[in-house]
Hints:
The structure holds two protein chains of two kinds.
Chain A: H1 3-14, H2 17-44, H3 54-87, H4 90-94, H5 100-105, H6 107-132, H7 142-170, H8 173-193, H9 205-212, H10 227-251
Helix pairs in contact in A: 1-6, 2-3, 2-6, 3-6, 3-7, 3-8, 6-7, 7-8, 7-10, 9-10
Chain B: E1 2-13, E2 16-27, E3 31-35, H1 42-49, E4 57-62, E5 65-67, H2 71-75, E6 78-81, H3 93-103, H4 112-118, H5 134-146, E7 152-156, H6 164-179, E8 183-188, H7 191-197, E9 200-205, E10 208-214, H8 215-220, E11 225-230, H9 233-242, E12 246-252, E13 255-260, H10 266-279, E14 284-290, H11 294-308
Parallel strand pairs in B: 3-8, 3-9, 6-7, 7-8
Antiparallel strand pairs in B: 1-2, 1-4, 4-5, 9-10, 11-13, 11-14, 12-13
Amino acid sequence: MSMRLINAEFLKLRKRRGLVAAVSGVTIGPMVITYMVLLGLHASNPGKYGPAGGLENFQPSMDVLSTLTIVAAVLIGATLGTGDLTAGVFRELVVTGRSRLSLHASRVPAGLALLLVPVGVAFAITAAASLVFAGSLEAPSGTVLAQSGAWIALVAALSMAIALGVASLFSSRGTSIGILLGWQLGLMPVLLAIGSLGAAREGLFYAATDRLRPAVVDANTTVPTTLLTALIVLVAWTAIPLALGAWRTVTRDA
Amino acid sequence: MNVVETSRLTKRFGDRVAVDEVDLHVPRGSAFGYLGPNGAGKTTLIRMLLGLTKASSGEMRLLGRSVPAERAAALARVGAIVEEPRFHGHLTGRENLAVIAAAREPEAGKRIAGALARVGLSARADDRVKGYSLGMRQRLGVARSLLADPELLILDEPTNGLDPAGIQEFRHMIRGFVEEGRTVLLSSHLLDEVEKICDQVAIVDRGRVVVQGSIAELATDGKQTILVETSDNEEASRILGEHRAIESVTPENGHFRITLHPDKQAEAAAGDISRRLVLGGAAIYRFEPTRVSLEQRFLEITSRLEEAA
């Protein structure tokens, strides 16, 4: 893997105007709208609606942002994993003699470079709004903001890596997006809510990311798990799809 | 030295054998045609050479290096167009080359401008590829293959979809590469194209290389033919029939096609034949050494195979 390869992957991504617009729209847009609505409500009726910022609004905003970050990560990961194949350029890359593994590996930093910018902006808006518009409410501390920023970056990175691995494995962008969004936003929350599954739920991605979430923002943790278990679960959830995607990339007919 | 060498190279798809124990030898500095009908296994062989698909058995060497063991080093100096060249349509021509250059040695990036100029695409290099015509894409494909500063260019059906002017331009380009000392391995089902571009050829049919060698050797198969027309065909027929250098005499529309024995010195034999005809009283109107076209030879070989099958 080299910087030139990473830059090339990043070039392919950032030149997809539709993707960049979608990812920006799905992350930055809702956060701007959320705080505008909260500000409007507070301005129209301060007695009924409290200030738009503060820790009280920061917590649900982070819930929304983490969900939207996963959607953005899926879009980018699926595009990265299938872009060269769909365009028919994968074989042209293989013909250069460059190892297929390094081609696969270079996609991870390139995807993160594109994903973390809008997610960072969306988080910055959320953080700034929670401070500036806190009014009489308790504002999140610098530590909480730093921990929350690191946590959302972690969720973004791991979700993107999973999406890249799955898309490389299935070789179809549409199928991969469907599977990933169905699992991440549909099936996994349902499984988390089924109490009879007990400790088995500790193996779910969300249970592990919730464990790493800053305590003050942790409003909805449903499955208690240890830090070590959470770390193992996250490594497994990331490494297995990435490894399967790498295996498919290395072994497929180009 | 051969830049491509294969030994009993085979590719099977289930029960079907696409490439059947092919022994191929492509000499350095030549334009080598890999000629065969559609479905003969040409693209599959090229895909194996380039590491796009695995061989079922056999060995291959590119630029003296064993493939796939030393694939990266071998492909560093190989440029290729496999089937229709494909690109990211949302990127410009220059950006597409930059993407491929990034996967090659650092110097490859410095060759982009030169490669675009070489194929006449400098003016359109910053347009998105989705707006390119097929001919422009083919040229961009050639530019991409030049990023490797290739010793060997592997071109699979490169003139597919080109108009006559584009085909002619392509031929000149390929001959230019050979004159620079590069080797070109060109796969095609177009006999005329191979005959006009290549020095050497291998004819492939149903996955097997039937024959390989120089175009001149294959076309004549070591035999020289001469068309002869005289003032007295009856006397000419007798003289030609008795000449020991002549293997066969075939009457054709008022003239004869004579085929010399392959072991005879063609020029000396032709001189002696013409002298005898004149001495025998048959004035010569036409005495024309001919070359069997590659097309005739190809049809001869493939029909022989069909008869055998």
